[in-house]
Amino acid sequence: MHIHILGICGTFMGSMAVLAKELGHHVTGSDANVYPPMSTQLEAQGIQLTQGYDPAQLDPAPDLVVIGNAMSRGNPAVEYVLNKGLPYVSGPQWLADHVLQGRWVLAVAGTHGKTTTSSMLAWVLEHAGMSPGFLIGGVPQNFSVSARLGGTPFFVIEADEYDSAFFDKRSKFVHYRPRTAILNNLEFDHADIFPDLPAIERQFHHLVRTIPSEGLVIHPTTEPALLRVIEMGCWTPVQTTGAGGQWQVKLLSEDGSKFEVMFEGVAQGVVEWDMTGQHNVANALATLAAARHVGVVPSMGIAALSAFKSVKRRMEKVAEVRGITIYDDFAHHPTAIATTLDGLRKRIGDAPLIAIIEPRSNSMKLGAHRDGLPESVVDADQVIWYAPANLGWDLGATAALCTVPSIVSDSLEGIIERVKSQAQPGTHVVIMSNGGFGGLHGKLAEALK
Hints:
alpha/beta; Protein-Tyrosine Phosphatase, Chain A; 3 domains; seven-stranded mixed sheet; six-stranded mixed sheet; UDP-N-acetylmuramate--L-alanyl-gamma-D-glutamyl-meso-2,6-diaminoheptandioate ligase; Mur-like_cat_sf
């Protein structure tokens, strides 16, 4: 079957393409911006990519068009599909029908940490010899691909609350029907889709409605929004993590790189790993709870986590030039920025820390998070904010509210010059964006040489 995917370089759609290819389909796709790591992964899989949405790519007609949620009415390829009556479907629906049917689905949902936690969970099951399938919105370094079918009924999926397609406004995760569900945390996000936090809570409630009574829901005790979701109705056993929960930790290092795991008051072992930050400790607890539900004893899960290598673009060290370390991070919400910088600060102590932030997500562009940004960067020594041309609010006014030195730059060249003038051996530079950022990471490393 020839499947053509519109919006193929999104992390979800690109991963779905890998699974369709593995099922034996002829897969092609197109996107407005074809950029790594997804483009390189797809090309390595032999999937032909087209830049742009010229309808000519749909002639001869494929057997099925899968339409990504970034596509909207007015897109030339979308209009062609509708006018010609070509069969089409959303990505989550295709996945539910052709991959997840009959599997034991372990879903990881939440505002933050979905990619890292689903990567941890897939790795823990792999380490235990369970050969899980998975679809993850990033490339876990323990696997080097973002998706695979796997050899057993177990399938780990990053479960996103974003909408499914222009013709299906339900959250993606309602298609997945998990048996094991991690609800990591819940804050307002996706301001282009949801008017407020209660609207997102309602979608999480719809997810909870699909989890069987023989399944398991895992959530932290410290998230008021998730407690409200559970109170709307839950027909499934629940395990909790964090303060007062069944799963707890004793930190053995301040930066979160070493901690003891407790389950129902009994010590299970010590995780010692390369990760930092309280958020990753929380991700680890949820992972161990989910893995235990499918038969992985905590001691085995702890051994796996100690060998976990994180995900590309999640505090990934991409270069070290003349003693200056450059990291690539996907953070695009004030909470994620704050927890990431906090974890790095605890690891590097008093070393100089420069944060470079691109407000690129739809919620950021709409200004939904701007009030939380000044507080999110307090652990940096200085911040460089990138102002893209289409930003609809005053980034300079936000930068002026920061308690650490902050400047706004409207060009990559300006950012590079600023870092060159400020960074010295021992400086750590974190580049935060949920896009390619114009290849800034490589250009900066080259300039610092």
